[in-house]
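Reminder: ligand-aware prediction takes two inputs, not one.
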Amino acid sequence: MTRELSHYVNGEAVSGKSGRFSDVYDPNTGIVQAKTPLASAVEVSDAVAAAQAAFPAWAAMNPQRRARVMFRFKDLLEQHMDELAELLSSEHGKVVADSRGDVQRGMEVIEFACGIPHLQKGEYTEGAGPGIDVYSMHQPLGVVAGITPFNFPAMIPMWMFGVAIACGNTFIIKPSEKDPSVPLRLAELFLEAGAPKGVLNVINGDKEAVDALLEHPDVKAISFVGSSDIAHYVSHTGAKHGKRVQAMAGAKNHGIILPDADMDQVVRDFLGAAFGSAGERCMALPVAVPVGDATADEFIARMVPEIKKLKVGISTDSDAHYGPVVSAAHKVRVENYIAMCEEEGGKLLVDGRGLTLQGHENGFFIGPTLFDHVTADMRSYTDEIFGPVLQVVRAQTLEEAAALPSNHQYGNGVAIFTRNGLAAREFAAKVQVGMVGINVPIPVPVAYHTFGGWKRSAFADTNQHGTEGVRFWTKIKTVTQRWPDGSVDDQSFIIPTMG
Ligand code: NAD
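Here is what comes back for the chain with nicotinamide-adenine-dinucleotide:
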């Protein structure tokens, strides 16, 4: 009998009632290991009611007490790191070392949220007029929700609920139906850390649950991370229902290699950034842009033998560079893009299709794939592939190279490899992309800065975590107060009016 997962509402595991389920696979074997319940609108409404009931007391709790829950939660994450990483790998397929990184990067946002007493402080002006002071407060919004993708099932929920809950909101996570067990476990640990029941809830589901959250009048804000078409839909539908929404989306990140770059570092970095986690990262580096044919030829000559040495293995294989992709459907999609790039005229140098692992013949494995002579008009270049596929687009000048990420529909991350500080500085200032790495292949900002892309990589006015996160999850109230002391000056003070 297949194991049945649950929702997590008001501090308890709650069985699904809709009668609809989605399969959770072990990507290493292709076997269905569990079923996720897909919530109905009524089940979503029950979770919202639990979060709503928990809100007044949580919002009223002083910020250092909320921070203490975050400190304890961070300790529990450290204690349970191995368990969480193994659970994550078993549903996602990434190797355990990558899963530890997933938990670690989420935990860093919790560390950031431990500083909430300072982060949530408002501003104060004494004496804006006679006897008049002005101050502002950052107040929580109420019940808020996060809808998350499959590829970082620990980090991305924590990007959202870490900051939102620290600010005094109560939260509902709607995780990816492909790997919901880590978010469920995080909710249990959060309760163990001392959070009151109903502060963090998990609702599993698909479009029906997402729509129910988008339409529910008591849900005040929604943060979404996933693919661009759905992000666009969530952003518009949420706004139509009067919600504050931020929706982070797809990506196709470029790594520009100048002729003076340290090629040893470039090769090492591309092996990790293009193929690590089977390329299923929104900050992966699936496009290399060497400047000049000599740079391109050297890059390819150095990459091909290294790519052939990469070990694809099951996610518990500590020698494996990366594991399977998340689903059979995604494997087919990636392999179709490889065929498309070939048909479009890309020169296939290493073909990862048709890889099977002995003893794991039905696992969702794809070998590393390398294309040369990819051009900007190819659909396989303009689309996000989200697999272990590296496309080389040759450019003759830095200007030509820099135009590629700037003109691309996505603008999440970009990297430049060079020893020329001035060139790098100008590139960083001008490129039309949200996150830039200079000799850093995956420039994911640390938790106390903020994460977010441009163009079709984010439908959002605010980024994830950092002070932007605090701004997204709170509303500002500005108070102008007057305590007259009866003096003439005081009586004659007139507040400026529109007229
Ligand atoms: P996805 O868009 O398929 O799913 C994301 C979420 O949306 C899931 O919770 C899913 O259940 C829900 N969903 C799916 N179909 C829906 C529909 N029709 N209506 C409403 N909700 C729906 O994304 P995914 O495959 O889980 O994740 C991979 C994508 O996420 C890639 O495009 C990747 O680039 C992107 N991503 C972006 C960032 C970022 O910060 N920019 C980070 C990680 C992943």
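Residues 147-152, 174, 176-177, 206-207, 210, 225-227, 230, 248-251, 282, 384, 386, 412, 453, 457 surround nicotinamide-adenine-dinucleotide (CB under 6 Å). The chain has a mean pLDDT of 96. We will return to this case in the review session.
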